[in-house]
Amino acid sequence: MDFKSLIDTEKLPAHVAVIMDGNGRWAKNQGLKRVMGHKNGVKAVRDTVEGAAEIGVKYLTLYAFSTENWKRPKYEVDALMRLLISSLRDELPTLMKNDIRLKAIGNLEILPEKGRKQLQEVMQKTEGNKHMTLVLALSYGAKDELTQATKKVAELVLEGKLMPKDIGPDTLENHLYTSGMPDVELLIRTSGEHRISNFLLWQIAYAELYFTPILWPDFRRANLFEAIYDYQHRERRFGKTSEQLKS
Ligand code: IPE
Ligand code: IPE
Ligand code: MG
Known about the structure:
Blueprint: E1 15-19, H1 23-29, H2 34-55, E2 59-66, H3 74-97, E3 100-105, H4 113-125, E4 132-140, H5 142-158, H6 169-173, E5 186-189, E6 208-211, H7 221-232, H8 242-246
Parallel strand pairs: 1-2, 1-5, 2-4, 3-4, 5-6
Bound molecules: 3-methylbut-3-enyl trihydrogen diphosphate (IPE) (2 copies) and magnesium ion.
């Protein structure tokens, strides 16, 4: 089915986030090493990013590396970091062509120097792009993010710049990595796993969740369009009753 033509572009999710999972299993199924799964995952990233920009999604966040992924074997972590550097370099023209701005969220300080520099370079070069914001979650963990936001708020209180009674959801939100971005409205996870794996806990508070068995290297824009079509056929009640929404 051609889901693209069925999508209502006036009702796109303001922010789509993707847990790109299943690279290792994809490789294993083909009799290849895990790292080959990651390499083939880059094609899926390119197609998904272009597809999102094509229909007019404003924010796309991709979970590329979690705080827990540092615990993987060193050769796999090293390969992922090398792949990050080469993909950032290779994808810059695609980002420019599609008017996409790159941002990154996570504990970026602990990324290898070369990766951090390449990331900075692409973020700088795409800074003025307006059509879509692509957010890479790298060395990202939601518990880390909430912990560092809490520390910042505590410091403001200690410095006398903030009273505890004035702390509201916005206060915390302003200190998240995603400050200034809309909440996630559609969260997609590939590979058939039904868990969040420490991704955007705060920002997905009211997201619609979409799970697909497709392994990440096989994911293409048509699959994104199907997920958005599915999202558009759900009733988002935000605590209200169905009748209230209709009146
Ligand atoms: C997702 O694929 C990529 C990263 C987590 C970096 P996996 O590497 O987790 O693949 P599976 O889940 O082992 O198949
Ligand atoms: C989540 O996938 C992290 C990324 C996609 C970057 P994992 O494969 O690391 O998650 P678990 O281990 O299955 O929870
Ligand atoms: Mg996995």
